[in-house]
Amino acid sequence: MTAFLHQRFGELHDTLPHLRLGTGPTPLRPLPELAVGRASLWLSDDGEFGDGGWGGNKVRKLEWLLPDALRRGRRTILTVGGLGTNWGLATALYAGEHGLRTALALVDQPVDDHVRTQLARLERSGATLHFTHTKARTIAAVPYLLAKHASGGKPPYLLPAGGSSTVGVLGYVEAALELADQVAAGVVPEPTHIVTAIGSGGTAAGLLLGLELAGLSTRVVGVVVNDQLRLDARTLLRSARRTEALLRRRGARLPELTLSADRLILVEDQLGPGYGHPTPQGERAGALAAEAGLHLEPVYTAKAMAATLALDADGAFGDGVVVFLNTNGPR
Fold first, then answer.
1. pTM of this structure
2. How many helices (H) and strands (E) does the chain have?
């Protein structure tokens, strides 16, 4: 399937190649079981996106990142995440399938059953793991890791946490265009809001840009779940604008855009003690979602669902159509 960006905004294959890794469009379905207010709640389940059961928002980003690394002649991807990183796991699995090695710098986070399971998967994934423990030590280790994992005279392809680079953001520009096509086909009414967890910012930034390109008025509700990165409106808008500039430099024929903070609602009261710490609200939301057949994890998606239910109960969505974006990856 040809990427929506290539279909709509010009032939970018040479400079922004796309590699289909998942099966789209992402399924959409109503969630009346979780209704607590007047809004109509829908589920967009990106946990079903990736091939072989390994899905989530990480795969959408890798569809653009892996071919860019290959185009640049890199042989290794170097990136960072927490001990239970879905991003690092998805990178290792999909990169390995396309001849790329992965090196991961891992930062400490609270260890529970979810994290232990993920860490065991990482150890089996073929990635080289570096336990750098803290953000400061990870930053200090980057020059050493770049030199250690250089290959063929070139450094590794360096990516930030979550794959939220300027190229990685394209994954959720694509997702917004996909949603616009589903709205046009009558699959779902035009949403008034789309809710997503914000761990590294790439998903929200891509949605902001993609919804603007698609001509939808949908607002992005970002539930901040990470206190280790700057994730304010200014940062997210800057990320979206950088990806817009990238598209224009590479020849995309884009309309005039007005990216504004008015399109973004940030929720900052679901973080709890910090990144990776479960919260009582998240646990309750996760249990309710499980009754509706939706599996959420405690670090990102359960907190995002808790925010969705709280906002709906408070009337913040009115009687609008709200899409909850499940970014949970591995099953």
1. 0.93
2. 10, 10
